[in-house]
Amino acid sequence: MGGPLMAAIGESYSRGRTVVEERPFEVLVGLAGLLLLFDLVSGMATGRYSVSRIGRFVWDGLMYGLIIGLAGIGLSLTYGILQFANFAHGDYITSGAFMGWGITYVIAGWGSANFGHLLLVAPQGNVTGGLLEIGITSTPFAVLVGLVAAGLATILLVLLLDRIVYRPMRDAGGIPLLIASIGVAFALRYLVVLVYSARTRGTTLRQPGTAIPLVDGSLLVDAHDATLLVATVALMVGVHLLLQRTKLGKAMRAMSDNRDLALITGIPTERVIRWTWIIGGGLSGMAGYLMVLWTGTIDFQFGWLLLLLIFAAVILGGIGSVYGAIFGGLVIGIAMRLSLVWLPTGDFDLVAAFGIMILVLLLKPQGLFAGRTTA
Amino acid sequence: MTERPDLRTLASDLLAADAAKIAGLMLAIYVTYILVGVILGYSPGGMVNTLRRLTFLVAIYSMVALALNLHWGYTGLFNIGVAGFMAVGLYTMAMLAKPAVPTGGAQYAGLGLPIPIAILGGVVAAALAGFVVALPALRLRADYFAIVTIAFAEIVRLLYTAAPFQEFTIFGYTTGTGGGRGLLFNFRDPMVGLYELPIFEGATAFVNRFIEFSPSQAQAVLYTAVLVVVLAAYYLLLKRTGESPFGRVLKAIREDEEATNALGKNTSAFKIKSFMLGCALMGLAGILWQFRRAGITPSAFRPHVTFYIWIALIIGGAGSNTGSILGAGIFTAGLFEGPQYLRRVIGSQISVGQPPGTFADAVGPMFALNFQPIVAYLFNNMLTLQFVFMGVVLVWLMQNRPEGLLGHRTETAAAVPLRRRSDETAEALAREETEEASDR
Prior knowledge:
Low-confidence stretches of chain B: none
Largest sheet of chain A: 2 strands, antiparallel
Order of helices and strands of chain B: HHHHHEEEHHHHHHEHHHHHHH
Mean pLDDT of chain A: 86
Helix content of chain A: over 70%
Oligomer: heterodimer
Distance between the termini of chain B: 27 Å
Strand order of the largest sheet of chain A: 1-4
CATH topology of chain A: ABC transporter involved in vitamin B12 uptake, BtuC
Distance between the termini of chain A: 49 Å
Largest sheet of chain B: 2 strands, antiparallel
Helix content of chain B: 55-70%
Strand content of chain A: under 5%
Strand order of the largest sheet of chain B: 1-2
Low-confidence stretches of chain A: none
CATH class of chain A: Mainly Alpha
Radius of gyration of chain A: 23 Å
Radius of gyration of chain B: 25 Å
Number of strands of chain B: 4
Shape of chain B: globular
Strand content of chain B: under 5%
CATH architecture of chain A: Orthogonal Bundle
Order of helices and strands of chain A: HHHHHHHEEEHHHHEHHH
Number of helices of chain B: 18
């Protein structure tokens, strides 16, 4: 009676043993993850961890994750199609944010200060975002125009850089392109310093919000949280439709699969590359703009600091995959913030995120959505 | 019999040529900077200081570039976490060497070990860090390896900055990284023994007769001289490594890892050894770089350092030890120190006027064809512009000369000198060749 059952148990036992023997490291990491999850759930159930505090971590992580995911789409597309890790992507984000916020400052502060100073996002501190009362509720028009301007300006910048730097090197291979992109990153970052100055500034006014009650406290969600959520989700859906409903998506998939084959089947590869930069550049500029809207500060390094997290998300999701980048972004963002449940102070959340990335590279370098590129 | 170039002289010529290239470059750099010093009206002491600082930087960047050349030029390991390994070396050294009983405010205790042991500890720690990174990351593609190494370097920097590690107790010993405020180097300078040598004191007194030369200046010069000796040791070690059978396997891995594996070489073991050796050398260079400072903060190990070394390596040409030193020299004199001296020279000759406060104020007058503000603004922001220029140079090199000055040079693969080939064998070879030719 117990024969088949015993056999089944025995079979799954031996299968499990093979898994443990072949991939001890993965099993270990999986067990550690389960342990942390168990600790989190039991801690919340017994009241050892404050539910509202964890709610705050998850919400902040979601916000970070949406920004990382949105910016990651572009990095993932260029990585998949041009076959190189673009280290300048973080500085596209910074440049886009500065250009977009310049426009927002000009519209919101028209007449109240020197035009040039407004366009440069107030490099000298005589005006601030708070002084101009910038925010989605107080100056919705300035914010929306700034967001669109950030996207458009970044597209122009990215196309220009492709024309000058990457296009002459199209067939140079991944490593020379990567090294060149590090050069671009430095040049761009310090051009931003030259033009906009190295000062960190506050950009927005505190926004009204609603407190969502949670078991032992509440979660404050303000208007900028909501704006970030709506804008990123809308842009992500837009990219999804663009890649699913048009031939562009198909051409991109073909190109990231095999560029030579795509070329001889009549796909205009240069045009596809241009569209890749347009989508990636536009999204990264807008992600930078939204990040500044959400955090309320802007400085010349934030894109670079975000870049490694974006790499983490893109690699976790699988290079070339749009949905992978979004999913990876959410995982990295939430994991980064949730790690603060166990780790002391704020110095360790980045360490945790980079650690997760290294683990992913070691355990599953092909990523979770591997093979389903741009789809 | 026609005169055949003797292989022995050829080989020594080549060696001389490499040494001559380095010496020639340094000479050109020195002459240029002496001219700069003359224009700026530096005192002889100031001139010596300028040249000493230049030599110091060239020596340090050369050491790291040589170590990176072992990784990338010889083994094909794409390490962009150089700063992290340097930081591990220096911090470990400092934490081992600092006195066990802290003195004064804001001080953290160390283990109070003698400096040579602490330096050894730092080097070993950097090598171990290399092992920790390389062991799991070896299977990865070059670009993934790059991302792992830069993530490692940032993790190292963040951990040294983190407040909880500012001071901690481990195995009953209290020590600490000092967090964001960093560590003061309050241990005894081991060079003191050299400074107290009669010959050094005598030489300082002798120089002082001609130019004003303080003891601290003399000590700095001596330290730089020691660094040049260390650099020579680095060069010889890496040259020897590259030419050894070990080095040949590394080059084979760089060219085709699978083929090397198929030939029965355990490529993973070779890669780990190469990576650890390079990391140890980076750790030592990190120690020597900051050793004479009053202290250290984690911000000294931002990714910029890695960026500098990569530019130096690419200017010189990956795969060439001589190129690494040349690259470091050109980078330091031309890109790192050059712009600031250029600015001083121009500033001493002509007045560019009061710089405007913002870029907008600089650009605005351009529409009225007034270019003075923009020139003054750029001039005033030369430090920032310098980074832009470095980035542009890197891009230009990758587009136009990815092999640098001396990259992809045919190198002797034999471990034994080839100059022992006698005339007889050479003639036999020549005979064979003519026979082969007549067979066809």
